[in-house]
Amino acid sequence: MKLSKGKLAGIVIGVAIAVIGGNFIYNNFLNDNDDLQYRLTYISMEGNREEKQQEEAIKNGLKDTKVSEVDFTMLQLDENENMVMKESEYNKLAEKLNLKKVTLKDDEAMIIPSYDGIKNSKYLKEQESIKEYKLREKNLNMLGVLDKKILVAGLYKHQFIISDKLYNEFSSDSKTLNIKGYDFKDNKKTNQSLLNLFATKLFDKNNNKLFLLIGKDNLR
After folding, report:
1. Which InterPro entries does the UniProt entry name for this protein (predicted)?
2. Is the Cβ–Cβ distance between 58 and 182 less than 8 Å?
């Protein structure tokens, strides 16, 4: 099921909230497990002064279960949802997730899909047809589309892997996003701990819009 940015940001209905922070996702829109790459996703945007406290709170909420964690950084280049990840960072993530690694020149990029799987074959074909894309006035040759998404389906429209050198060049005038993905075994105590976490002031969207906390349906 595809989730548009509009649905991610503003549909209001009477169900439990599965995402808190600067944007909303309601868990009836996430009834397909393929929509979420991780059981719990935390995204902290540049300027979030409560990042360390939030990370510690999440860690404490997951203390009663076995957790597999990944973390990586991306840059938001502009307001058009152009997101980039450097090659070395992606390859570390690929090793953890058993994905294919990439090798890029400074004028090359790979597309990270916002959606994946057979049900999104039309979207993937459209992405594969893109042979060139401009980022910060640089025309980059697109070498193809990765097999798997690395974030929540539809969260950011344009995601790319670029060379470390180009990433460093872009970083001086971009917003940094620190991202953590958590997978863990289901148990009532952990689920309740996370529900309590969602309700705390530390994760109050009205208090801080520089983060996202996204959980699967069974965190209700």
Report:
1. ABC-4_Integral_Memb_Prot (IPR052536)
2. yes
Distances (CA, A) of 54 to 33, 49, 201: 25, 10, 11
> Rounded to whole angstroms, how far apart are CA atoms 109 and 215?
30
Contact indicator for 208, 21 with CB cutoff of 8 Å = yes
Q: What residues have CB less than 8 Å from 34, skipping those under 6 apart?
A: 116, 117, 119, 153
The secondary structure of the chain in percent helix, strand, coil, rounded to multiples of 5, reads 30, 30, 40
User: Mean pLDDT across the stretch 65-77?
Assistant: 95
Look at residue 209 and give its three-state secondary structure.
coil
Q: Domain tally for the chain?
A: 1
Identify the pLDDT of residue 216. Answer: 75
Segment 156-179 mean pLDDT: 96
Helix (H), strand (E) at residue 191 = helix 188-198
Domain hosting 85: range is 5-219
Amino acid, res. 119: K
Q: Which amino acid is at 35?
A: D
| Closest by CA position to 200, among listed 58, 64, 44 | 58
The answer to which of 68-72, 144-148, 160-164, 189-193 has the lowest mean pLDDT is 189-193
pLDDT band with cut points at 50, 70 and 90 for residue 182: very high
Paired with 44 in beta bridges are 178, 211
